[in-house]
Design goal:
single chain; mainly beta; 12-stranded antiparallel sheet; disordered C terminus; AIM24; AIM24_sf; AIM24 family protein; Trp_RNA-bd_attenuator-like_dom
Length: about 210
């Protein structure tokens, strides 16, 4: 299995000994040794995955990198966060997924209204299995614990990913900006309940919903 390690906070180094990884297309910045690159459409899921993403609008174009040596990845100088999966599932915005072990399965999952307001369709990307994934964030990501005693409410523009036994729901009619006396914010929040982790970034991605 490939070894993921960070060089600084904005560059991912992946050491491979005949292994393969799937990475965001165009994210390779350097490599040494012998590497082969192959562009994949739909997260490497074949026709079904490609059609699903086209219908839902959850865009994800990746490349497979395989070989012996080290390959370095980065994405617009964003911060990189490593996530270890042990047979569980990671839900992540497609634009925030940088690289995964090739053995991890990627797919799509229905998430409801949040995806539609961000222009990403009604689905989000899933990564499942045992191995490592690298996700990016605009600024250092904050990992927040969700427990049955302490549910978590998140601004949809700051949400990156979540994992664990977590249930996701949406609350409409109130925004974080409403509390601050500002307009133009999302007209809902994301509520997480259960037991798991939620990754948020310290800035908000642009949304198209406005106050709808």
């Amino acid at each position: 299995m490939a070894t993921f390690r960070l060089q600084g906070s904005r560059v991912l180094a992946v050491d491979m000994t005949g292994d393969a990884v799937k990475a965001k297309n165009g994210s390779m910045v350097a490599y040494d040794g012998q590497m082969a690159f192959k562009k994949m459409t739909g997260g490497g899921e074949g026709i079904r995955g490609m059609v699903t993403r086209r219908v839902t609008g959850e865009q994800m174009t990746v490349m497979e990198v395989k070989g012996h040596g080290t390959c370095w990845f980065a994405d617009r100088a964003t911060e990189i966060n490593l996530v270890q999966l042990h047979g569980d599932k990671l839900f992540v915005e497609a634009s925030n997924l940088l690289c995964t072990d090739a053995g991890l399965r990627t797919g799509t999952s229905f998430t409801g209204l949040r995806g539609a307001t961000q222009g990403n369709g009604l689905f989000t990307t899933t990564v499942e299995g045992t191995g490592q994934a690298a996700i990016v964030s605009d600024g250092p990501a904050v990992v927040l614990r969700v427990s049955r005693q302490y549910p978590l409410t998140v601004d949809p523009g700051a949400y990156i990913a979540h994992q664990g036994n977590v249930q996701q729901s949406f609350q409409s009619g109130v925004t974080f900006r409403t509390f601050m006396g500002e307009g133009g914010g999302e007209a809902f929040q994301i509520r997480f309940e259960g037991d798991g982790l939620v990754y948020v970034q310290p800035s908000e991605r642009a949304t198209i919903a406005g106050d709808v």
